[in-house]
Amino acid sequence: MNKSFLIMSPGPTTVPPEVLMEGARPIIHHRTPEFREYVDECTKGLQYIFQTKYRVFNFVSTGTGAMESAVANLINPGDKAIAVVGGKFGERWSKILKSYKANVVEIKVEWSTVVSPEQIETALKENPDTKVVYITLTDTSAGGVTPVKEIAKVVNKTDALLVVDAVSGLLAEEYKMDEWGVDVTVSSSQKGVMLPPGLAFAAVNDKAFEASKKIDSPKFYFDWKAYDKKFPNDTPYTAGVSLMYQLKKALEMIKEETVEHIWYRHKVLADATRAAVKAIGLELLNDHPNNVATAVISGSMDGQEVVKIMREKYGIIIAGGQEPYKGKIFRLGHLGYVTGKDVITMLGALEMTLKDLGYDLEFGEAVAAALPILREGEIW
Amino acid sequence: MNKSFLIMSPGPTTVPPEVLMEGARPIIHHRTPEFREYVDECTKGLQYIFQTKYRVFNFVSTGTGAMESAVANLINPGDKAIAVVGGKFGERWSKILKSYKANVVEIKVEWSTVVSPEQIETALKENPDTKVVYITLTDTSAGGVTPVKEIAKVVNKTDALLVVDAVSGLLAEEYKMDEWGVDVTVSSSQKGVMLPPGLAFAAVNDKAFEASKKIDSPKFYFDWKAYDKKFPNDTPYTAGVSLMYQLKKALEMIKEETVEHIWYRHKVLADATRAAVKAIGLELLNDHPNNVATAVISGSMDGQEVVKIMREKYGIIIAGGQEPYKGKIFRLGHLGYVTGKDVITMLGALEMTLKDLGYDLEFGEAVAAALPILREGEIW
């Protein structure tokens, strides 16, 4: 007997069975009062997880589409924008901005660390005409967590808008959009929200929405104005009906656990994983590690081999490194529908995998470091 | 006891139970060999339903996103494009083109008919610098079917590309992309393909793909080049995993029935519906009616009332009219997972609804006209 793969990646993440089952419900038509009630409920739940009272638009797309919306709706050709490039997803901000012919100021950050509020402050002083600052809450390719709260304080002293890619980080990290003063947050369904891929979200405050009215860049499908007209209980184009059923269910589960406990759970799972990795003599890639996925330097081992053996021999999906760290790291996810049990399963498989690769360890060492943290934290 | 609503709209359409169940399967990670096999199978099935040997790109979006891709990848600012505007979806081509700053030549067509090949020929003669012609296979708002085969002959005498929105018409109407010489066809999942909303497709031949390489319009999420790099068995951004499970299943069902029989089935269902409507003295809006949804002039009755009573009292979802025909028509869908049984159910409900509204008819008149056509056509 083989159980299906255990997904321990930065996303797509495991979908809870009760959410999966919602995906099998008969379709109802999206232009009906019954469906509008669904959309309305989902809007409220999304506002809760983004911690915002403002608009949360809901696209049928992946996170990249929501990211593009935050460029197409805020940037005219030639506008100056700061993009923090400290991993694959920061690079994506820069690429999208260049496609929209923005004047991009890149803050390049080593993948082993994250951008500091001081770096943002300096860049804003050197570029007082900056329209928008684009950052990434957790650039999972590099394993770090960006100090968004402190960066927001810096940006809010200027006229620039702050846009945060929270695609992977939402719910895994403490995040308070309105309280911190973030103008736009984008995320998607297949991460902390525990849904299949297919929906993406853009939370947009009044300041950002007002600014978007002056933007003339080509756009249609991701034009916020069209979504605003239908907000909060309808969509301008066909709604992702099955995914909205699932979203409503997942948001109910999230509300029951509370965002505070979800943030805490992810911290405990990540603490346990980090302690386990260090206990067997491996090092983390990032000095500000996030709670989404632990990026581990594979040293003398090929990180891709670790991923391959974990999947093929032990049925656990973890993630490899992306260029320039391909082969040099592997990433242990603990995002979404994950408990202490899953982390221990993953660590057990990791111990066997490393042994297979000739790495020097005693069986039980990684697990032994994780168990007391999970026990103490009461996450099992 | 109440059965769930019967959807008889131009989309979203009913999803077969065996396809729904696929949506409840556990997620697998999209960057795995197992998932690439899924994508590969889906690509082959999509090529079959588009009747093309070329690329069929697969977006997580609705049909509007795929439409936008056919503008963003083919139009530079100032490029001349012809758009046929004979309904809501032709208007959408024009709106998207204007957002991308195309020089749009609109061929305006009354909603009661469809564009002729001669009109396209004339427009192309008057505008020899036209880069792309945008048409709609079945603009369901107006109820007609465009003679794509004949239009393709006309366009192919020039250097212009032909782009067809087949969002609602694919599988309901005979359609042979390569044989007819269409360069780009777009469609989506929640129509003839019998899936929940969430996936959209762009079939792109070599001529169109080559042309796209010279286009500099802002785009990222819908940039064909990114999808081409991953074609045929992978996706540039996160794949719609659950929807791809469902797509594979639906494509298997389609292959088993064959596209030829599916086209035939839709023709019989539409013939039966049209005969029924005429038998009770009502008229069709369009003189070239399509096999997706029958647009019926509601005469002295409010078309919106017909829709409302059908839904609230009889549990059947049909569609109303869109501006400028709102209230003046109603639309009886027969698209996707529909058999003769469903058409008869719909017609029975329609007879009762019209009676409720005081319309003069004898019970059984509509059904009586449909039954022999279904029986003769062997669609039940």
Task: Provide a compact summary of the structure.
Two copies of one chain form a homodimer. Chain A has 380 residues and is an alpha/beta fold.
What features would you describe in this structure?
Two copies of one chain form a homodimer. In chain A, a hairpin with an 8-residue loop joins strand 9 and strand 10. Chain A contains 14 helices and 13 strands. Chain A starts with 5 loop residues before the first strand and ends with a helix. With 380 residues, chain A is of the alpha/beta class. The first copy, chain A, folds into two domains: 241 residues, Type I PLP-dependent aspartate aminotransferase-like (Major domain) (Aspartate Aminotransferase, domain 2, 3-Layer(aba) Sandwich), CATH 3.40.640.10; 120 residues, Aspartate Aminotransferase, domain 1 (Alpha-Beta Complex), CATH 3.90.1150.10. In chain A, the strands form three sheets. Chain A has a seven-stranded mixed beta sheet, sandwiched between helices. A four-stranded antiparallel beta sheet of chain A has the order 9-10-13-12. The model of chain A has no long low-confidence stretch (mean pLDDT 96). At the A-B interface, helix 3, helix 4 and helix 10 of A face helix 3, helix 4 and helix 10 of B.
